[in-house]
Structures are given as structure tokens and as C-alpha cells.
Write a structure and sequence with these properties.
This protein has 10 helices and 7 strands. By secondary structure, it is an alpha/beta fold. It has one domain: Alpha/Beta hydrolase fold, catalytic domain (Rossmann fold, 3-Layer(aba) Sandwich), CATH 3.40.50. Helix 3 links the parallel strand 4 and strand 5. Helix 2 packs across helix 3 and helix 4 packs across helix 5. The chain is globular and about 50 Å long.
Amino acid sequence: MKLEVISKQPEERQHDTPILFVHGAWHGAWCWDDGFMDYFAERGWEVHAMSLRGHGNSEGREKLRWHSMADYAADVEQVVSGLPRAPILVGHSMGGGVVQKFLETHQVPGAVLLASLPVSGTWRFIMKIIRRYPMRFLRFNLLMSAWPIVETPALTREWFYSEDVPEETIKRHFERLQDEAFRAALDMLLLNLPKPTRVKTPVLVLAGENDEIFSVPEEQATARAYGTEAVLFPGMAHNMMSEKGWEQVAGSIIGWLENRD
């Protein structure tokens, strides 16, 4: 499988362990390359961002509907195996779920779950969609396509961003969004949920106070499942890597990594 990987090398390497970023639903590697990756590279980290199959410039777009969470975890395994050493994994939203599935059978130095798929799955988010947009949910099922959930700039802002994010940012990100796998959506709802008891890797859980997709209580429950506490960012929405104040999120990750040496 040919997978897109965006890489950035530090001018002065200060850390031997690389970082691999895994995007969420409807996104691609591009979502990390808006300042977030540069922040880590400027501080001596080798960083990589991958596009899962069917996303970004990776192969598999023609079969996107049927890609599963197991397929996505296999993509992470492929990219990790091509790195010089096991990386720190940072997964956002669905990508956090992919990281959790990968960690059930692999161990890395550390993992960060950023506004991640909770261990309980997406059923609360699905109920929110049904209440707010019943016809969009109907189209989601009839078309077997997740695109109706995010198909306008207004929906992009509602689900991913705070009200004070500039309209130009919303427009730029909306233009790069895409459909998501129907099979993966079923996996995240019920068919293939994370199994924290199988994970041996240290985990950091970060949550946005105003996240419209995964709530603070869900992220707190996920953190407890991994024997830790969620770090909460007040006023922040779902796309924590490109919200206003994303530098605080990146700094929190680096602080955690440095404390773990």
C-alpha cells in the first residue's frame, strides 16, 4: 500500500525518538502541517504525518467505503516499520482510535490521544447527529457515506472549530476535507472498539473543553481506562492541533515527553 507521509527534520536534532502523527476522520496528513509539525521540528524532533489509506495522497480512495479500523492500524504498522526506530504516536479523533488499535498488539515509547475516539465508541456523537440532523443521518446510512455530516463550511466549524476561528481558516480546511469509510464508522460505533487492557504503552490523553464530537467525560473515562487523567484545555474545540492556542497543546505534549525522558 502506497501511503503518503509528510516528514520534517530538525535543524539540530535533540531527540532520537521520532514522532508520527495520525489524522482523524475526513482529514489527511495535511491537518498536522499548519504549524503543529514545525513546532516539534523546531524543538529538535524528527516528525512525520501519515495519510491513512484512501486519504490525502495515499492509495485506496476508490475502496474508501469499506476500509476498516484494522486496515488503518495496518497502515500505521507499515509506516512505523519504515522508521529507524519506534516512534511516539500522536492520534487525533479517529486517528486516536487507530493508535489504540495498533497498540493492542504493538508497543512504542509513548502515545498521545488528542481529542480521541473514546473507549466507549462514537454512539454519543451519533445520537447528537440524530437529534440535530436526522436527515443527514439518514443520508449517511442510505449512501453509506460519512460526507453528509461535514459537507458544508458551517458544519466544519460546528464539529471541529471554535466560533472565534477565522472564516479563512474554516474555508481552507473545509476545501481539503473528504468522505470517510462507512465500515470504519461502524467499527467505531460498535464492531471494533478499543481494548485498553491489551495496551502496555504509556498514554497521554488531551481533551478540549468545547469539543462537539467527543465530550470531556468521555475523554476522562478513556484516560481512566489507561490509568491516567485527561488534560483539559479550556475553550478549545475538536481540532486541537489547529485551534487558537494550539501551541499550548503542542507544549503539553513536549512537556510530557520530556518528563518521561
